[in-house]
Amino acid sequence: MLDKIDLKKKVSKEDAKRVIPEMEIRLSQLQRKAKEQGIPVMIIFEGWEAAGKGTMINKLMLPLDPRGIKVHLTADPNEEQALRPFLWRFWVNTPAKGRMAILDRSWYRRVLQDRVEGRIDDATRNLSYDEIRFFERQLVADGAVIIKFFLHISKEEQKKRFQGMEKNPSLAWRVTKADWAQNKKYKKYALAVEEMVERTDTVFAPWTVVEASDERFATIKIFQTFIHAMEDRLASMERPNLEPVEHERSDSYLDGLNASVLDRVDLSLHLSKPKYKAQKKKHQKRIWELEHELYRRRIPLVIVYEGWDAGGKGGNIRRVVQNMDPRGYEVVPVAAPNDVEKAHHYLWRFWRAMPKSGHVTIFDRSWYGRVMVERVEGFCKELEWRRAYREINEMEEHLTNFGIILIKFWMQIDQDEQLRRFQEREKTPHKSWKITEEDWRNREKWPDHKKAVDEMLYRTSTTYAPWTVVESNCKYYARVKAMRTVIDRIEERIAD
């Protein structure tokens, strides 16, 4: 593909002076409109060394308001980043609504430099392509614009530029052994670039290969691509029924069916207090041992707790962590998103909280709020929560591909038990803070919430991240089952 591109294209100085000023005005106008409409924009610059990425980034930024832009230089991951999933460092730096991020190199480093230099194997490369497509599709479906440039020059042009830079005392330091190594491996890199474009050139995030031998031509092509992408996005906002990605299924699990995962749960399961105390002591000791084993082996653990109000999540979490080293775990309570979180993709705040290798994060409620409370209360559109099943599965697959042990608990109680616990909380002074008007309102919508939970369990219980439904009418039984599940899942991993 690259060998078919005409690298001799040029634009005269007179033509550039004629068209570029008008384009710069349009760039500035589109940035303001993106801010007004709350559109996050990500601009990716990939390309050969010495192809002019820095120059092109500078030319693109000059007509724009720098207060609305952040430039990220993507180098090899540092120690902190290497202990996280591949896309973690890019998720946490996604721009808020109305802002722009420009990336000098990006997540494509994974399938270019890492691939050519042999830092990843074929299986990891193939997984990375899937993860990249999922990542970009999720951001665009949420309203972002992703513009991707690959700056292309020939092997001979690259060599010529390296030699010219080395002769300049001010620029010689910029030419490294790695740069010359890329020139020597030009053909191998070119094959990697072609595969990258073939596998990630999508309708929602297409590639633009920029002929970068002539600076003026490259500048105009980049400006033109940016203008067209932004104008298309703004025009699509005037057609609200059209989505930038494919529609999700319009049917709903259980519609018209007399079936329920929750109805099959045996809530009569019980454990006596003496047996509970004995098993709790044994399991907590084992969890303490396994926490240290996770740290030693650099295995991250994520535990998700979801369940009915008064389902026993807090008490269950306390028993799991009771003997653990608090330096190695964090409990993340999840409430309604704040203004900063609302300005990002709904998964952004959860990506930021993911543990590094060897550590444990426990979520007291989680990203599943999208397909439960947000669905039932109408806090998001129907298309958004339907799409979320796929997005959640993709995120969890990425986490487990990295090596995270992901354990998901649904704490199940019946309505009678919930009512008893609500009334007990109201009567107990030191527990009364736990019961709110919102809890009572949620109880009135029990059938709607139950339908949402059933569909959630059905659509997001996967081989890599299955749900464990915890029978929680008996708190003792629920606590022991959760601890036993945590132990079993960790022991299963370390036995591999």
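(ticket continues) Second input and output from the same batch:
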Amino acid sequence: MRSLPLGGSWRHGDFRRLWAGQTISQFGSQVTLLALPLVAAVLLEASPFEMGLLAALEMAPFLLVGLPAGVWVDRWPRRPVLIVGDVGRALVLASVPLAYVLGRLSLPQLYLVAFVSGTLTVFFDVAYMSYLPSLMTRDRLVEGNSKLETTRAAAQIGGPGLAGVLIQAFSAPVAIAADAVSFVISAAFCLAISSKEKLPSREAMGKRVGMGTEIGDGLSFVLSHPLLRAIATTTALANLSASAIMALYVLFAVRELGLEAGMLGLIFGLANFGFLVGALLAEQTARRVGVGPTIVASSLLSALGLLLVPLAARSNAIAVLIASGLIASLAVPIYNINQVSLRQAICPQRLQGRMNATMRFLVWGTMPLGSLLGGMLGEALGLRAALAVVALLGLSCFLPVLFSPVHSLQQQPEPLPD
């Protein structure tokens, strides 16, 4: 494993390249985050269930290919996976503005774009989270994750405003082209990384066995580890609730609250200032109060923030949605930085891909289910009532880490041996 030069990760050239590519890509992704549901809700007049289905298809690959992806990522060099994932998503997203210009844009195409880009994201995310520990020493993982989360937060602050401007100026489908370009730039930065990745030796990996056995190894490691099992359950519950809310959020804002793209972009941008503050506070908070208490408190705080969404009305929509977003966005990076660093620190290198894929399968696999749940409840109960039900459900998310060894953890534990 390559050591960082004295002075921290900013002096590590390959980390800077990874960071730069991800920063640009994150800005682009904020455009699609707002533009894609607006295309469905406004241009194609999607119903609540169709909005839920669109969100579900983007997350469905985490259920369908998440576990095999971890096995493959442990077998392959990870940098090429990052590059293929970026280039593939650029091509898929570019099809949306092209179809719009040609007058052929439809909901089935959006469904296909969501599913294919989601599949590529599965491989990218598993490889990305497994690649960082090969660039950075264990004692720098929290620092590296904090810097990556900080710049992601900056994108979440500035990106929605940029997205709102692009959407109003050029239309939502055309604005998605900006995200496609950002993936191309991210791929170029990954290509420029010069470090030779050190993969686990054949001895460490052991004799090659079948796909099912290797998937089982990842599942067994996560489910038998009390820290990982609790984190997986908490994150899965939080994602179930949040994805149900986000499946209906744009539709609720447009149809119930009368908000337009520019105002939505402004709300997202202001609310996302919490991400920047949370990313900056994550390491310091864990050092002062302990890793475990930080994880427990931040998981509860994020759920409390989402409870405000169904309380928004036309008279107070902007203030309530910004407050909701600020609370949730403050808590999420504090939670993610500490729980992801904990996962990376305690997992042997030979299992990083399968561990991350298993965690993604368990915690992101609930997201398509949440999106479908949100869509169905929206059809059955109406948008506001559905949002209230799933927000109340989300309050249970902090219980698994509270009633587990996580709550008493003061610092990162030592990793298991390879």
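Agent notes: The chain is about 80% helix and 0% strand. Confidence is low (pLDDT under 50) at residues 1-7. Closing as not reproducible unless the customer responds.
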